[in-house]
Structure formats: structure tokens, C-alpha cells
Design a protein that fits this description.
By secondary structure, this protein is mainly beta. Helices cover 5% and strands 55% of the residues. The strands form eight sheets. The protein has a 29-stranded mixed beta sheet that branches. The protein has a five-stranded mixed beta sheet with strand order 1-6-7-4-5. β20 and β21 form a beta hairpin. The longest helix is centred in the N-terminal third of the chain and has 15 residues. It is globular and about 90 Å long.
Length: 947
């Protein structure tokens, strides 16, 4: 029987083009490089089993504690997105955003605390911060994915959570092929908005070949997709204390401290994500000593989505509307009715456009049989613009006499709030085109004065708003290193090098108030598209129209929000960061009493210089924003030691140990030097006596933030008992030495009060704010904590249990975590973003004679997340987690005996087949639902054809 040795597996993977090093491999000792051809043949199995074999071989061979994914075939990962595949790995968990698995947590830390690289080079994201949104990157370009849970000194993109390396094929060692992938996608839910589709498609072309006597290799991937999503969403504004003046049914007791839902905005959302991408890898070996590799990736991303629905104040935040509580359970008013609100019909359309370009060139030169020198240069750029148009309509402009009020009964459910008719007030038909007018039914705009104190813009003039932030990010990196074999006792090789990176990220936070041309009157809705149903919250529906088309046509007049909103320039900034890293690493290769020990010990010295520019904003005596340019920054040096040891004490059985100090760079938006004082022109806040609903607020960044830091310990046992079978148990502990929190303190804003500006609308009598206090927040470092956890995983081929189960297989894992970080003064939040106490994953598959079947499930408990709030800013929220089940069946015609179908595979996939919803809550009480999202299932019919 041939022994299943790591070095043989590694060589086999290299020979098949499934490269797993972050840089081209250096020359190997001739004696250890001899590979039995039969071993290579075994590893080159395609399909599910081949993917598991390659992934297991990578995991087994690595001296770090890693998880691995390998493509089942050229251009075909196990799932339709990188994020979905990663979410099934031990210690990892996925987070759905707008119906797609996009975010990834590694060992309890979300993607903002996880380093991501493409072929070993840091990869830019398309989000607001450093974290990568994995669903935006095409699966077709990926050959392998490695998740490093323990770092080594040569990895300069290490983070507290871990590091994820996306790897493309290496064409000089890969098999020549030409492959076409195609997929038809269909949502289970019909299109919720009349101007969107519920189906889409994906197409890709992959080409790999060698030329010039196998000295030139070319890999090219071209991919395009249109992917739809449908969503029913209900967001509750918060929960306020029941007023002593509130009525209650005679048989209902309302104890002191009882809270009630404060209002809602509910939408039916349809979206279409379009992505076109081109990726290429060119390898050239002009001589035996020199290999050059060029990598290029271009992604053009566009997502359109329409969110049509209602925004309504409720009890307490309903602008003085009377309400009656009819049921209370454990401090929560679970049912009642309120007497009316002028409903705001929202026809909101958001368009996100982004382009990513990354280019890299690597040169590897063999100085002699033992030493290699590598030079690598790369650059990346992302441009992203979000255009978010809000358009308001209702039963008439604010202040118009005789408008009907929408009165409702409510009942709290496990999914949030469900409405029904008021017991005595007739409902309002919000789908009646003769009733609904294109004008703001609430006076939510500012009052703007001229130099003579006369109003030139009125609070009832706002008929919509457009947020249009523009993001730009660039990253340039140069790396020079050398590595070689030595004979220094237990040290078999050394590596040392220098890495320099220069990163810049900027945001321009544009925004404008929109006014319809009929002002001060109102007009009918132009070109009604139809009705959007709202029955998921118990409401009949609303009229739909094309607000983005109206905006782009110049229908609305615009007033630059920068004039009066401090958070426009107050959230406009540029952050620059230069990092210089020196590192050295010693590879360990020895044997002690029959135990084969490999590993490495290393050190990084990282110098950081970070600078940022922005604005400090306040308001003058007329309410206009005064902006003062500000800047800030700091520089510092970190020393990061690492140790990884892997001991094979019996054949296929390993004990691995990792010790390291790791860090994660501060969030880019937290590093801005800006400060701002804001006031919300919303009657429900101006007239509120609840400090959590105050119209006043202030915030600032902190350009002197130091990185998040942790000392970590890892211990793992792995037992590989077959080519696709193993069990593993690991424990880790991360001692958080420097964590960040938003320090929020209560501030008196009396000095910023301007009576003629800071008042309620005409409709509520131009009253002064009830409160003059609000929250002032600033990110601060210096907090401590820990995260620790256990991971249990296993892969079991069915034939090991019984011959009749050949072709069956099971992969399962469970992760148990706990941890905290110190709360900021005056707060109680100690959770780590992305940490679920429990995570589970299981995949059962069958593959035989060309037939394939797979069902996969993941489950995670609640965790701290983020959601977009006012002005598209991110704010904390609690996601309740959930269980997500996907299934796939397929057939590989290579097993059919039909010659002209050789190379064809067809698959049918079903995602979220149990219709799992996303639910977020306040965190204090899981019944206090703040966000409910329903997506339904999704189906994909695809083919993969290799010539």
C-alpha cells in the first residue's frame, strides 16, 4: 500500500495546477521531489470527491492550522458564490445581506477583522471599510481557497480573525482546457416590484493552455451575471417607554417600564445585481532560472434595487397621535391601536456602481540549487458610487387641510409587527391613484433663512432626498524576499524580506433635498407602474412609480444638503496609510524519536504611518454649515512573533501548535479626523422626551487609533484515516490586548440651538425641541477582552462503513465560542461583531457513475451585526442567526459513454429551501424585533462543459 505522505500530495497538486502557495514555489530537493505517477492520478479526480481530496491534501500538508476549499472542476466551486462555500468551513460562518451570503466571520470575527488576499496579495473590498464582500467576486476565477487560522511571518495580511487567500490556477502546470459555464437563476417569489424580473443568468468562459514549448502559460476567465433578489422587509424604529398618558383597555395593566413599538418602515424590495469580470494569469519561464507571472482582475459591478412601501410613526413616535394598549406581556405592549398618522409612501431606488481593477507582476529567480529571490509588485483600485433616491408621496402635502389619517391596530409577532384595521376609524386606500399625491406628507425638511432672517426654504418643501456617497480606494504594494535551503540543525530553510504598501481611501458624502415642481401645491403620480403588495405586514399595498427615472430626468429641483447638514462634510474624508514590514522566518524540519516535526518560527516588524484629512462642522446663526478643514494622524511600530509546529506522531495523525501576536488595522471610517454636530428635522424626535430619540447628536473620528491586537494560542489534533476521511479537534484562545469601542457620552447642545431653525414643523406649531441633550460618540482604543473556542470537524466516506455505501460521504463541523471586549463607559455592549456562540455545518453527498447529489445546512446563533441607517451610515444591530439549507443534484456525462457529451456536467441547485428569514432585534429583548427580512428560496439550473 502506498503511503499517503504530505510531500507527495503537495507535488501532485502542483503538477495539476492547483497551486496553494501564496508565491511561486521555490526549488525542491531532488530526492524529495520524486513522485509516483499513480499518486498524481489519484489526486486528479474531479467532482465532489476530487474537491475533497485536494482540500484535505492541502490541509494535511500545511504547517499552519488551515481550512481549504478546492474547485470541483475548472470554474466550479461547490457553491454559486465564494461566501456560500466559505460559510460551510469549520470555524467560519456566513452573514446574509439583502438575501445573499456576503459577509464571513472567522472564529467569531466578521470580515472587518479578517485579512483577504488574492494569490497572496491583499485584496481590496467594495464596501465601506477593509472587509471584503465575498459575493461580489466571481467564483469562476477561483481554483483553491485557504483560510489561515494561525499566521506565519511571511503573511503580511494577517488579522485577528484569520486570513483568507483566494487562489487562481497556475497555467504552466495546469491541464489545458477550454470550459464554458452557464446558469439560469429563478427566484421562488414573484417579482415584488413591477419593473423588475425574478430571473437571471450567469455565463463564463475559462481557457488554460501552454505555448512555446511549455514556457508560456495563459489562463483567461471571462464571466458575466445577472442575479435577481426579492425581499419583504419590515424595520421597526425602536421601542419607547409607554407614556403615563397613554390609554389602556380597562382589563389591561400597563406596568411602569413597559415599552411599545415606536413606528415602522416596511418595504417590498426587488434587486438585480449585474457583474462583468475578466481575470487573467500569464506565466512565462524564459529560462530554467527565471519565471515571471502577471495577474490581472477587472470587475464591473452594478446593482439596482427598488424599495417601495410605507413609513409610519406609531405609538410614542407618532407625533402626538393618541393610542390605546390592549395587551401587555412581560414589559412589552404586544397589541393595541393608534388613531392616525399621515403615511409616507416611499418609492426608493438605490443604484450601486463599482469598478475594481487589480494588476500584479511577480518575478522568481533561482540563484542556485538552494536559493531563490522573489520580487512582486501590485496595484489595486476601487471606485464606488451609491445613488439612493428617496421619493415621498401620500394623501397630500404636509399642512393641507382635510387629509385622511391612516389609523391602525397592531399586534407583535415573532417576525415583528402585523397591522390591521382600526376598531372604529375607516382605513385609507393607499393604492388609489386619485387620492395619492406626489408630495411629502410630513414636514421633515429644514427651515433655511437668508441674511435678513427670512425663510427661503420651508420644512414642508422636502418631497424626497438623494444620498450619493462616492468612495475611492487605491493600494500599491512592493515585496522583495529571498528564501533558501540551509542545514542548520533543525532549521531546513530560511526566508526573509521587506514589504511596502501605500493605501488611500476617500469618501465624499453628497446629498440633496428634492422638491417636486408643483410646490407649494402637489400633483398626481406621473406614470403609475402598478401596485406593490404589503400584505406581509397586514397592509393592502402602495402605488409604484419610477423615482430614479424622475430624478435622472430633472423632474425634481435640488438643494445641496451640505448647506445645512453637518454630516455631509462631517463624513467626507481621506485616509492614507503607509506600511513597511520587515520579516524573517526559519522553517523547522526534524525528527524526534520517530515523530516527524515541521513548522516555522518568525518575526515581523511593522512600521505604520497613517494620516487623514477631513472637516470639522458646526452651524452658524442662520443654520448654515461652517466647515473647517482638519487633519490628524500618527505613526508607530509593532513587533509580531509567530510559531507554528506540526508533529506527525503516527501515520496520518498530527498535533499542531500555534503561538502568535496578531493585529487588525483600524476601520478606515474610524480613522477620519472629522467632527460634526447634527440636528434631525423630524417632528417625532423634536417633540420627544426620550433621550434615545433626541434630535441632537454629535460624532467624530479618531486618526490616532492603533490596531486591534491579540495574543493567540492554538492547539489542534488531526487524524487523516483515508484520502477523503479525517477527524479534527482544535482549541484556540485570543487574548485581546487592544480593542476599539465607540465612546458615547451625553452632551448638552444648548450652545448650538438656533430658535428660528431648530423647531418643529408648521403643522405641529413650530415648537422648540423638548430635549437639548444628545449623544456624542468617538471611537477609542485601549479596551481588552478575549475570544476562545472549540472546533470539531470530520469527513467520512461512506464506503468505510460498508461497501454498499460507496459514493456516499459526510462532512460536518461544530464550533463553540465565547468572549467579550470591555464595554465603553456608560454602555453595556461587550459583544464581538460576528461572534455566534454556536455554529454548525453539515454536508451529505452521493457521487457515483456520474450522478451527484448534495444537501448542505449551516446554523448559527445570534450575533452582533451592522445595518445601514440614516444617510446610509452603518449602525450596530443584533442578527438572530438561523438555519440555512441548500441542495444540489447533477450528472457528469463523462460517465455516460456518449462520446459527444464527454466533458458536460449539469446541475440543479436550490438555495434556502426552508425559506429561512433574517431577523434582527434590539439585543436587550429578542422579542423587540427591529428588522424582519423574507427572501424565499432560489433555484439555479446550470451546466459546465469542458472541451
Amino acid at each position: 500500500m502506498t503511503q499517503f505522505k504530505p510531500n507527495l500530495i503537495k507535488a501532485a497538486l502542483i503538477s495539476s495546477g492547483m497551486a496553494f502557495g501564496t508565491m511561486p514555489a521555490m526549488a525542491q530537493d531532488t530526492e524529495t521531489d520524486q513522485v509516483d505517477e499513480s499518486m498524481v492520478e489519484v489526486i486528479q479526480v474531479s467532482g465532489i470527491r476530487g474537491s475533497l481530496q485536494r482540500a484535505q491534501a492541502i490541509k494535511m500538508d500545511n504547517t499552519s492550522i488551515v481550512e481549504a476549499l478546492s474547485a470541483e472542476d475548472i470554474g466550479k466551486l461547490p457553491d454559486t458564490s465564494i461566501a456560500e462555500s466559505l460559510a460551510r468551513l469549520p470555524g467560519l460562518a456566513g452573514e446574509r445581506r439583502n438575501g445573499r451570503t456576503s459577509g464571513i466571520s472567522v472564529r467569531g470575527f466578521n470580515e472587518n477583522y479578517v485579512g483577504t488576499t488574492l494569490n497572496g496579495r491583499e485584496l481590496l473590498g467594495m464596501g465601506d471599510n477593509r472587509g471584503v464582500e465575498f459575493d461580489l467576486y466571481p467564483t469562476e476565477i477561483i481554483s483553491n481557497i485557504l483560510v489561515y487560522k494561525t499566521p506565519e511571518a511571511g503573511m503580511t495580511t494577517q488579522s485577528i480573525g484569520g486570513s483568507i487567500d483566494l487562489q487562481t490556477v497556475k497555467p504552466l502546470t495546469a491541464e489545458s482546457t477550454m470550459t464554458i459555464n452557464g446558469t439560469y437563476e429563478q427566484n421562488k417569489e414573484d417579482a415584488l416590484n413591477p419593473d423588475f424580473d425574478d430571473n437571471g443568468h450567469r455565463l463564463s468562459f475559462n481557457y488554460v493552455d501552454q505555448f512555446a514549448d511549455d514556457t508560456l502559460g495563459v489562463a483567461l476567465t471571462i464571466a458575466t451575471m445577472e442575479s435577481p433578489r426579492q425581499e419583504q422587509q419590515s424595520r421597526i424604529w425602536g421601542y419607547a417607554g409607554v407614556s403615563p398618558d397613554a390609554a389602556a383597555r380597562a382589563d389591561v395593566d400597563v406596568p411602569e417600564g413597559t415599552v411599545v413599538q415606536a413606528g415602522h418602515d416596511s418595504f417590498a424590495r426587488s434587486a438585480m445585481m449585474e457583474r462583468d469580470s475578466i481575470a487573467t494569469v500569464i506565466q512565462w519561464a524564459p529560462s530554467d532560472n527565471l519565471t515571471l507571472q502577471f495577474d490581472g482582475l477587472y470587475i464591473d459591478f452594478l446593482e439596482d434595487d427598488a424599495r417601495r412601501g410605507l413609513e409610519e410613526g406609531g405609538p410614542e413616535f407618532g407625533f402626538g397621535s393618541a393610542y390605546t394598549v390592549t395587551e401587555v406581556q412581560d414589559g412589552l405592549a404586544t397589541a393595541g391601536y393608534y388613531d392616525g398618522f399621515y403615511s409616507v409612501i416611499r418609492n426608493d431606488v438605490r443604484q450601486q456602481e463599482a469598478e475594481l481593477t487589480t494588476l500584479a507582476l511577480n518575478a522568481e529567480y533561482l540563484l542556485n540549487d538552494n536559493w531563490t529571490i522573489n520580487a512582486d509588485i501590485s496595484s489595486g483600485k476601487v471606485d464606488k458610487t451609491i445613488t439612493d433616491v428617496e421619493s415621498y408621496s401620500g394623501v397630500g402635502r404636509a399642512g393641507t387641510e382635510g387629509r385622511p389619517l391612516a389609523a391602525r391596530s397592531w399586534e407583535m409577532t415573532a417576525n415583528g409587527v402585523m397591522f390591521s384595521d382600526h376598531p372604529s376609524i375607516a382605513p385609507v386606500d393607499l393604492t388609489d391613484p386619485s387620492l395619492i399625491r406626489l408630495a411629502g406628507p410630513q414636514a421633515w425638511g429644514p427651515t433655511i433663512l437668508n441674511e435678513d432672517g427670512e425663510a427661503v426654504y420651508f420644512s414642508d418643501q422636502q418631497d424626497g432626498f438623494v444620498n450619493k456617497p462616492i468612495f475611492e480606494e487605491e493600494l500599491s504594494t512592493f515585496r522583495l524576499d529571498t528564501e533558501g535551503f540551509v542545514d542548520w540543525g533543525i532549521v531546513s530553510a530560511v526566508e526573509f524580506g521587506i514589504v511596502y504598501s501605500d493605501r488611500t481611501k476617500s469618501k465624499v458624502n453628497n446629498g440633496a433635498y428634492l422638491t417636486a415642481p408643483e410646490y407649494p401645491g402637489d400633483g398626481a403620480i406621473p406614470d403609475v407602474l402598478g401596485v406593490v403588495p404589503m400584505d406581509f405586514v397586514g397592509i393592502n399595498g402602495v402605488l409604484a412609480y419610477d423615482s430614479l427615472g424622475l430624478y435622472n430626468s430633472g423632474y425634481y429641483s435640488e438643494l445641496d444638503a451640505q448647506l445645512v447638514q453637518a454630516d455631509r462634510l462631517g463624513d467626507t474624508y481621506e485616509v492614507e496609510e503607509q506600511l513597511t514590514t520587515l520579516y524573517g522566518k526559519l522553517n523547522i524540519d526534524t525528527e524526534y524519536e520517530g515523530i516527524y516535526i515541521r513548522g516555522n518560527v518568525g518575526l515581523q516588524i511593522v512600521n505604520a504611518d497613517q494620516q487623514s484629512t477631513g472637516f470639522a462642522t458646526t452651524s452658524d446663526s442662520l443654520g448654515y454649515v461652517e466647515a473647517l478643514p482638519v487633519s490628524g494622524g500618527t505613526d508607530y511600530t509593532d513587533v509580531l512573533p509567530t510559531l507554528n509546529l506540526s508533529a506527525e506522531f503516527a501515520e496520518g495523525q498530527f498535533v499542531r501548535l500555534g503561538l502568535s501576536k496578531v493585529l487588525t488595522r483600524p476601520r478606515m471610517d474610524d480613522m477620519r479626523p472629522n467632527s460634526q454636530v447634527t440636528f434631525s428635522f423630524n417632528d417625532s424626535q423634536i417633540l420627544s422626551d426620550d433621550p434615545d430619540n433626541s434630535p441632537w447628536g454629535a460624532s467624530s473620528g479618531n486618526p490616532e487609533l492603533k490596531p486591534y491586537e491579540a495574543n493567540q494560542f492554538d492547539l489542534a489534533y488531526e487524524n487523516y484515516f483515508s484520502e477523503t476521511g479525517y477527524v479534527a479537534v482544535s482549541f484556540f484562545y485570543k487574548d485581546l490586548k487592544n480593542w476599539h469601542r465607540s465612546n458615547a457620552v451625553e452632551q448638552d447642545f444648548t450652545e448650538f440651538y438656533i430658535p428660528a431653525i431648530h423647531q418643529s414643523s408648521n403643522e405641529t406649531g413650530n415648537q422648540a425641541p423638548v430635549l437639548f441633550v444628545g449623544e456624542n460618540s468617538r471611537p477609542q482604543d485601549g479596551y481588552e477582552g478575549f475570544v476562545r473556542g472549540w472546533e470539531v470537524q470530520g469527513s467520512l466516506p461512506g464506503e468505510l462503513l460498508h461497501d454498499s455505501l460507496e459514493g456516499f460521504g459526510l462532512f460536518a463541523s461544530a464550533t463553540f465560542l465565547d468572549g467579550y471586549a470591555d464595554a465603553a463607559p456608560g454602555t453595556t455592549e461587550t459583544r464581538i461583531p460576528g461572534l455566534s456562540d454556536e455554529n454548525y455545518s453539515m454536508t451529505v453527498f452521493y457521487e457515483n457513475a456520474g450522478f451527484e447529489f448534495r444537501i448542505a445546512a449551516t446554523k448559527r446563533t445570534d450575533y452582533l451585526s451592522e445595518t445601514r441607517g440614516q444617510s446610509l451610515a452603518l449602525s450596530d444591530s443584533t442578527n438572530k442567526g438561523g438555519t440555512f439549507v441548500d441542495a444540489q443534484i447533477g450528472y457528469d456525462f463523462s460517465e455516460s459513454g456518449i462520446e459527444y457529451l464527454e466533458g458536460l456536467r449539469v446541475t440543479l441547485q436550490a438555495q434556502n429551501i426552508t425559506d429561512e428569514d433574517d431577523i434582527q432585534s434590539s439585543g436587550a429583548d429578542s422579542r423587540q424585533v427591529t428588522l424582519y427580512q423574507h427572501y424565499g428560496a432560489n433555484y439555479l439550473l446550470g451546466f459546465n462543459y469542458s472541451f
